[in-house]
């Protein structure tokens, strides 16, 4: 872990002045972003750090009375022995934040997103947590753009050009849609990430979420210049050539008599390859052979064969078919 820097009262006061100029769009303003910092016995009393960022920071024995951190981001932050009486945080994002032995009398947390926030041995009389919500950590599932073509029966919203921390994207979108009541009592708990045309894109599936599709459609239009949002059902036909036909996805594996054959892997591969070709699956035959020859392991090779054909016994074949197979091998 990076060593934390001790911030002085003078530095804090100056940062507060510059930050509030930044909030008011005044010349000379500077966004307050504190990373890997320690604040010890400093006075935040009455200070406005709205929309500020605190990452990997510690607050020790600080006076936070009547301080405001609305719309702020607090990530991996610890408050120890701080006076947080009448502290205010509206629409803030708390990620892995702990309050230890703090006075939170009359503190107000409202419309804020929470993940792993803890209060240990704190004074919480009259503390208010209004309309705050727990935000799950979204599962990141990396796929290829081609995989989207197999999602014919799914729907979702795709955001394009999503560089940076993927979890921050999930948190931001979830918070925005919850605050606008587009997501109702739920949040996106997984996201599909794929690359296409030189951009990183995210697809949030509509499975297992309750949302207002009408409001989401309006939000998509209003934020299009920012996120280039589009529906999965529009993106695949317009960018990827359309969805794969369901029948092609579920093509039945042909029976292939391998049990009882010479167990040499190249022999089994040859028999399986011929079976696939006879069933009009020449491309699958080539793909299977390429995977087997690069697997470098007999058991893995057998598993690969099983992905393409339904392995049966030579005793299951009729005699006439066995003779034909033998003749074909001899002629080759």
Annotation keywords:
332 residues; Pectate Lyase C-like; Alpha-Beta Plaits; eight-stranded parallel sheet; 11 helices; elongated
Structural features, described:
By secondary structure, the chain is an alpha/beta fold. The protein has three domains: 130 residues, 3 Solenoid (Pectate Lyase C-like); 101 residues, Alpha-Beta Plaits (2-Layer Sandwich), CATH 3.30.70; 77 residues, no CATH class. The chain has eleven helices and 18 strands. The strands form four sheets. Strands 1, 2, 3, 4, 5, 7, 9 and 11 form an eight-stranded parallel β-sheet that branches. The protein has a five-stranded mixed β-sheet with strand order 12-14-15-13-16. α8 runs antiparallel to α9 and α8 runs parallel beside α10. The longest helix has 15 residues. The C terminus is likely disordered.
SSE class: alpha/beta
Low-confidence stretches: 318-332
N-to-C series of helices and strands: EHEEEEEEEEEEEHEHEEHHEHHEHHHEH
Major sheet size, sense and barrel closure: 8 strands, parallel
* Second rung of CATH, namely the architecture of the largest domain: 3 Solenoid
Helix content: 25-40%
Number of domains: 3
Global geometry: elongated
Ends distance = 65 Å
Q: Name the CATH homologous superfamily of the largest domain.
A: E3 ubiquitin-protein ligase SopA
Could you report the average pLDDT, rounded to the nearest whole number? 90
> Can you tell me the CATH class of the largest domain?
Mainly Beta
Strand content: 25-35%
What is the CATH topology of the largest domain? Pectate Lyase C-like
Q: How many helix segments?
A: 11
Number of strands: 18
């Amino acid at each position: 872990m990076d060593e934390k820097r001790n911030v002085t009262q003078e530095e804090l006061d100056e940062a507060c002045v510059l930050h509030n100029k930044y909030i008011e769009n005044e010349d000379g303003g500077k966004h307050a972003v504190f990373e890997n910092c320690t604040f010890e016995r400093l006075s935040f009393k009455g200070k406005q750090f709205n929309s500020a960022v605190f990452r990997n920071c510690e607050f020790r024995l600080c006076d936070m009375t009547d301080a405001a951190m609305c719309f702020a981001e607090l990530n991996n932050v610890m408050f120890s022995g701080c006076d947080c009486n009448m502290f205010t945080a509206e629409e803030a994002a708390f990620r892995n934040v702990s309050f230890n032995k703090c006075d939170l009398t009359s503190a107000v947390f409202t419309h804020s997103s929470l993940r792993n926030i803890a209060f240990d041995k704190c004074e919480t009389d009259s503390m208010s947590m209004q309309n705050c919500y727990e935000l799950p950590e979204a599962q990141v599932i990396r796929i290829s753009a081609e995989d989207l073509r197999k999602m014919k029966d799914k729907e979702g919203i795709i955001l394009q050009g999503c560089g940076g921390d993927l979890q921050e994207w999930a948190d931001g979108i979830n918070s925005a849609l919850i605050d606008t009541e587009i997501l109702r009592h739920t949040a996106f708990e997984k996201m599909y990430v794929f690359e296409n045309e030189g951009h990183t894109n995210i697809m949030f599936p509509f499975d297992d979420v309750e949302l207002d599709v009408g409001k989401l459609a309006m939000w998509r239009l209003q934020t299009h210049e920012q996120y280039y949002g589009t529906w999965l059902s529009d993106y695949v036909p317009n960018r990827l050539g359309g969805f794969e036909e369901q029948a092609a996805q579920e093509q039945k594996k042909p029976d292939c008599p391998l049990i009882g054959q010479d167990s040499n892997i190249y022999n089994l591969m040859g028999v399986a390859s011929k079976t696939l070709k006879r069933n009009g699956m020449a491309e699958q035959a080539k793909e299977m052979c390429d995977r087997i020859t690069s697997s470098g392991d007999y058991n893995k090779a057998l598993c690969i064969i099983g992905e393409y054909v339904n392995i049966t016994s030579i005793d299951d074949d009729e005699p006439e078919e066995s003779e034909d197979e033998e003749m074909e091998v001899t002629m080759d």
